[in-house]
Each structure stands twice: as structure tokens, then as C-alpha cells.
Amino acid sequence: REPLPIPLLELLNEGITACQEKRYPKAVKILEDYCQSARDRNSNDYTQAQIYLIRAYQMTGQKQRAIHLCSSLINHSNAQIKTW
């Protein structure tokens, strides 16, 4: 896998912005890249990326992917994330 051309935090922000602007296919691509490249799977940034990715999956009709990702958050250490 090639290194990403921009820093991870910038990639995350770009993905969140794309999702907020309802550019869901772009958000999916960016947030998937972020999640695959992130090293700390327990960080708040990683969790935030997953939550936005779930929304982007839902909005692009990828409901099974959204459900699968939601299922992984059921075991999250943060009670708020579990409830969400």
C-alpha cells in the first residue's frame, strides 16, 4: 500500500467535511482510506471516522457495510459509542 499524500488528520477532516456536505461517495472513499491507514484503532479520531463512515455507507445504499461497522462498535469501551 502506498503512503497517503496528506497527513491522516487532514484526511479525516476532509472525509468528515465531504460527509457533512452530502458528498457521500467521496466521504466513503476518504474515510475508508483513513480507517485503513490509522494505526491507533482506539483513538477518538478513529471512532469518529467510523461513525461518519457508517453515515456515508447508509446514504450510499451500502446498508450491510453500515451494519457490519456498527456491529464492531457494540464492543467499544465508551458507553456512549455503544449506545449510539
Biggest beta sheet attributes: none
How many β-strands, per DSSP? Answer: 0
Radius of gyration: 12 Å
Number of helix segments? Answer: 5
Structure description:
The chain is mostly helical and 84 residues long. The protein is 70% helix and 0% strand. It has 5 helices and no strands. It has helices at residues 8-20, 24-37, 44-59, 63-73, 79-83. The longest helix is centred in the middle third of the chain and has 16 residues, at 44-59.
Task: Give a nutshell description of this structure.
With 84 residues, the chain is mainly alpha-helical. It has 5 helices and no strands.
SSE order and pairing:
Blueprint: H1 8-20, H2 24-37, H3 44-59, H4 63-73, H5 79-83
Entry keywords:
single chain; 84 residues; mainly alpha
